[in-house]
């Protein structure tokens, strides 16, 4: 952190008179990039243009209740300072309220902030938000859902979700190793559960024949995720306001399939769904995913693993979420 980050926020901006719009800042104090000193600076800067209340989360799911209370209390915007898990929880509390959501980057990935073109640096992102006080233009975007749980950009079942569940089981490793934690988990899960007899999934959508596979990725955004600043694209036809979701299904995970699929994920000129063992479903309003053996399935939403469920039922709420 610079010795005096105040100039980076712009003293001329900080000295502007306060505005009357009410802002609730939901802070995850355990997020990987939330520095206490910088957090105080950012909240103080925002208070020069907004009527700000800052609250900390203290348990998983707490941000959902805090965001809902902020909406009922008359907030104009809820700002999250944490990772994509905090954003997801807050979005679930704001669904259908019309209160705007604005994520500040405080986690290891900050995918939704990147999708909304919010600067990756926290100081720059705070200055960007201060500028929005005079360019107030909230917009409606779609909300993907699985079994009633909102996801802002992506969800997955199968190998993808099992990897996320393994990473989530060790939060300290996740915070320290970031992308490397996922690489290690993916290797371990693949060798243990997917190399020989991978669990079979059945993906069903109205108007389509059922598709069998070992992992299914569902998108509510143009990119599935990011590797640092690099976008990872799976279903390329998807937008935040398209009114639909898209799904990509990998039919098998043999030793030769993962390297070739990985190359398609990394090199943007190659289409993932063009892989010979992949299939795509686009323009969907709903779909279901279940295990062929009827065992419970693990689902990940926005990089957070949920409890196993008998069936994952996906749908979309067009314009259900307001963002700034």
Q: Which structural category fits the helices and strands? A: alpha+beta
Termini, distance in Å? Answer: 27 Å
Which descriptor suits the 3D outline? globular
CATH architecture of the largest domain: Sandwich
Order of helices and strands, N to C? HHEHEHEHEHHEEEHHHEEEEEEHEEEEE
Proportion of residues in helical segments: 25-40%
Strand order of the largest sheet: 6-5-18-15-8-9
- CATH domain class name of the largest domain: Mainly Beta
- Assembly category: single chain
Question: What average pLDDT do the residues reach?
Answer: 85
Low-confidence stretches: 10-19
What can you see in these coordinates?
- By secondary structure, this protein is an alpha+beta fold.
- The protein folds into 2 domains: 6-137, Probable inorganic polyphosphate/atp-NAD kinase, domain 1 (Rossmann fold); 149-318, Sandwich (Tumour Suppressor Smad4).
- It contains 11 helices and 18 strands.
- The protein has helices spanning 6-9, 11-14, 36-46, 62-72, 84-94, 111-115, 122-132, 159-168, 171-177, 179-194, 257-266, and strands at 22-27, 51-56, 77-82, 100-105, 139-146, 149-151, 154-158, 201-204, 211-213, 215-219, 225-227, 230-232, 245-250, 278-284, 286-291, 299-301, 304-305, 311-323.
- Strands 6-5-18-15-8-9 form a 6-stranded antiparallel β-sheet, covered by helices on one side. Strands 14-13-10-7-16-17 form a 6-stranded antiparallel β-sheet.
- A hairpin with a 2-residue loop joins strand 11 and strand 12 (230-232).
- Helix 4 (62-72) packs across helix 5, helix 8 packs across helix 10 (179-194) and helix 9 (171-177) crosses helix 10.
- It is globular and about 60 Å long.
- Residues 10-19 have low confidence and may be disordered.
